[in-house]
Design a protein that fits this description.
The protein has about 160 residues and is α+β, with helices and mostly antiparallel strands. About 15% of the residues lie in helices and about 25% in strands. The chain has a single domain, classed as Multidrug-efflux Transporter 1 Regulator Bmrr, Chain A, CATH 3.20.80.10. The chain has 3 helices and 7 strands; from the N terminus they run αββαββββαβ. It has a 4-stranded antiparallel beta sheet, with helices on one face. The protein starts with 5 loop residues before the first helix and ends with a strand.
Amino acid sequence: MFGVSPSGYRAAHNSVPKSASGTHLDDVSRYRAPDYGEPLPVEVKDLPSMKLVFLRHAGPYSEVGATWGRLMTWVGTRGLLGPGMRMIGIVYDPDITPADKTRYDAAVMVNRAVQPEGEFGVMEIPGGKYAVGGWLPKSGRELRDAEELLTRIHVPVGD
């Protein structure tokens, strides 16, 4: 991303002289941390494994709508839609990845065996402990267009 190895970057941007003892004191008296507001509430939940049918999107995140449309058509024609169905988006790349290189899986949880077909794949997300955060439900705000959509971020964590 920055055209240099991590150690090369650190060496080029280390303006603090090293002391003979290997310790140093930075003058941080004028530093003010950014105000990010109140931290989001997070719970740790034990979640079961999930079997998913997915379609990979490569490109800008703003263009995943067409991928979702194709996936929903595919699962609908195979009778995989039903009550309690969960739609899951899996984001693989951070914001510093060029938009044309980002990867995103549009996925639907299934409760029966499904075989991969062409670009439609099958995966299982392992069960276990996940840190779960949900900004919207605790924000006091509501979705427009009265959609029933709940977005939660799930991050696998250790014991």
